[in-house]
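I am still getting used to backbone structure tokens and would like to learn alongside you. Please make up or recall a protein chain and show it to me in full. Would you write everything just below, so we can both look at the same thing?
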Amino acid sequence: MKTESFSTKSLLVVAGFTALFLLPFINKAFHIDDSLFLWCAEQIQAHPFDFYGFTANWNGVERPMYLINQNPPLVSYYIALVTSLFGWSEIVLHFAFLIPAVCLSVGIYLLAFLFCPMAPLAAMIAVTTPAFMVSSTNVMCDILMVSFYVWAAVFWLYGMEKDRTLYFFIASLLISLSALTKYFGISMVPLLLVFTVMKKRGLDLRLLFLLIPLFVMLGYQWLTLILYDTSLISNAASYALDRGIADSPNKIITKTMIGLSVCGGCLTVVLFYSHMLWSRFFLIGGALLLTFLTAVFLVIDNFSGNPLINISTASEVVIVQLFLFVLIGFQIISLAAVDVYKNKDSESLFLFLWVLGTFLFSSHVNWTINARTILPMIPAVGILVVRRLNVRYDLSGPGNIRHFLWPLIPAALIAMAVSWSDTSFANCQRSVAQQIHVGLKDYPHNVWFQGHWGFQYYMQRHEAKALDFKNSLIGIGDIIIIPRTNTGQKRLPPDKFTFVKKLECDLLKLVGTMSKKNRACFYSNTNTGSKLFLPFAFGNIELEEYYVFIVGKFKDPEKFIKRLNGEI
């Protein structure tokens, strides 16, 4: 393995670089699936050994949490610990999640020492990606899982480098923690197994340490069977496989293209290094490929009754972004493939399997294609970019590092813009929930709402009720709030409800992470087929709109509400 001398200064630069980018989002509202992990943390504080022993309405019907949350509970235990000490504010929790984000970037830095020169650059490349930035501003399980994941690789590989058996044991514990945060963490076991066998040219008794995380997950499987009379690991696997595996050639092509688009958009930093990574011939060929694919998909969409990707009604800006992201995604897979082809060693195979395995899982196995499932590959991609730069420029020799830093500037600007957009989206839901609460706090009838994500968290905190499509009993005069951009909603019958008014909230209008109009699906493209295919989109992003209805037929519903609210 190729190593450099450790530098405390470089480590502090990487840590500070990461914190600098994340601190502006420290008061971001809770967002998307944050709510699930927060509710589980509340349950853990009340019943520490029954983490999913409650029900919630997350899809329009009240269901047990163990059927809703398809992740293990470790991150909720972390939230429960932090909030028991410091309270439940957004600032407290975002500070708490800044720690695993910084640990992840430092872990990438330490891992890069074993693979390439200029290790800090590999970490900075990983940090300046929309996948890292946006995921680090949420309180979900992803960043914590990848942090454990990378540090497991660090200890295992350094254990081999220094022949320290204790490091192998620590690595196995870190894999276990990663898998107990998100099931994908267990994939580090086969990665390290293949790497070790190839590196040692045979078996090593210390490979037995890889059995520890397997036994831990078997124990978790047994525990959930005892607690909830069902196996949560098996349930999560079935959930992913039933909705994720492609079953026809068209679906395979579609999912591959959308996967490349999400991969490329989540790692846009690679675009700005393209001229350094590849020959002019490769770049020209890539441009021609982009043009060809654009023509093919436009023809298929316009003349075929079975379009691969639904771009026939998309704007030209959206189409350009799609194929630009696909080209970046193709470059990422090419980086891993070229590296393993040229080096044919354990390090290159390790990185190749890391990138390709994550891509295939995200595109073809998982129940949805999104940025959160692409996130685990960013450490390997950061390292691969620097390894490729080293092939073309010999970074180990004397050189001007600033020449290789400038592409981080446009990459960071894009990642920051996407993060600001997502923060704007999250904050809108918080502010509208507060506005509704202030306007209806003395209203004598029930206030219901449809939709979930962070909007549900804040509405329920203000004592509004999630509408259960099967069990809720609504009465004349009840209010129902429906967000336009959300999930788990049904259209109301117009003969039984009266529209009252529309509430609006401005978003960052130039870029969006969840936008049907602009085909953005940072968090999920589920139930939309091939209609959503960008992790984020530049364009004219639509306003956040919330529709207020009252149960019953009224000529002047606003006056009726004001009278009941004591305003007139």
The first helix runs from residue 8 to 22. The radius of gyration is 25 Å.
